[in-house]
Write a structure and sequence with these properties.
293 residues, D-amino Acid Aminotransferase, Chain A, domain 1, D-amino Acid Aminotransferase, Chain A, domain 2, 2 domains, 9-stranded mixed sheet, 7-stranded antiparallel sheet, 27% helix
């Protein structure tokens, strides 16, 4: 894999197309030291960014929750996102808009810092090994928990929130798992390190945690819509870890994960059933603008 600072082409940076290698962030930027940084992750399918407007809306929401204003309009960011994928000729890939506080102040206070914005894109395939997308990935259960909602801006994609996700995923991979299931501050099932989670019960109904201390993913909402269109009942509720033994199927949803089946969580085994395969097919049809099955 080519390191991300060694790639070629252009990055949209503070309103201009800049050579990839010339996009620099100072080592004393507030965003680096104090995590005053927000971002989005978006997928490109056949040259089109899926749900671009929703992602941009969330980027601006995240910035406001972090106490700063992005110095562009949502329309300008949408246009810049489309411009950079055309410039880079990305047909099926990933887009990363990011906004952060600059280096004018180096302390907790950051009122006078400049807000920088960059948008990069690159060709990118499956987040997980394609074989695992068929067989199902394996999760452990993290020792780290999603913090209480009164301790963090939990409904944002802010960089600081992902510190424990990296710790959890590294520990999972060290133990031979692909990813990690994280619990919330009350000990309920929350999400994986970068994706929401769904379970199927013996009656063919879906169950998914209420996103009241973690991100309500755009893909999560999309898949709920697909499931309801198929007359599949979706129960959004608190789920205890002890309930895992009662479910027969499990899958993750996310911009990167798309719809990815789970074969086990620790000692709990799940089947990659027809419902999950069908939901994934319908999701792929939707993002690629084909007629949904």
């Amino acid at each position: 894999m080519i390191p991300y600072d060694k790639r070629s082409g252009k990055i949209w940076y503070n309103g201009e197309l800049v050579d990839w290698s010339d996009v620099k962030v100072h080592v004393l930027s507030h965003g680096l030291h104090y995590a005053s940084c927000v971002f989005e992750g978006e997928r490109v399918y056949d040259g089109t960014i899926f749900k671009l407007e929703e992602h941009t809306e969330r980027l601006f929401h995240s910035a406001r929750r972090m106490g700063f204003e992005i110095p562009y309009s949502e329309e300008e960011i949408n246009a810049a996102s489309n411009k950079i994928i055309a410039t880079q000729k990305v047909e099926n890939g990933y887009v990363r808009p990011v906004a952060w506080r600059g280096s004018e102040m180096m302390a907790i206070s950051a009122q006078q810092t400049k807000i920088h914005v960059a948008i990069a894109t690159w060709e990118w395939g499956s987040y997980f090994d394609p074989k695992l997308k068929i067989e199902g990935i394996k999760l452990n259960i993290s020792n780290w928990r999603r913090p209480a909602p009164n301790t963090i801006p939990w409904d944002t994609k802010a960089s600081g929130l992902y510190m424990i996700c990296t710790l959890s995923k590294h520990e999972a991979e060290k133990q031979g798992y692909t990813d990690s299931l994280m619990l919330d501050h009350e000990g309920n099932v929350a999400e994986a390190t970068g994706a929401n989670i769904f379970f199927k019960d013996k009656n063919g109904e879906l169950h998914t945690p209420i996103p009241d201390s973690f991100l309500d993913g755009i893909t999560r909402r999309t898949v709920i819509g697909i499931a309801k269109s198929k007359n599949i009942k979706v129960n959004e509720r608190k789920i205890k870890p002890e309930e895992l033994k009662n479910f027969v199927g499990c899958f993750l949803t996310g911009t990167a994960a798309e719809v990815t089946p789970v074969s086990c969580i620790a000692d709990h085994q799940f089947k990659v059933c027809e419902m999950i395969i069908d939901l994934n097919k319908s999701y792929q049809d939707l993002v690629k603008k084909k007629k949904a099955a």
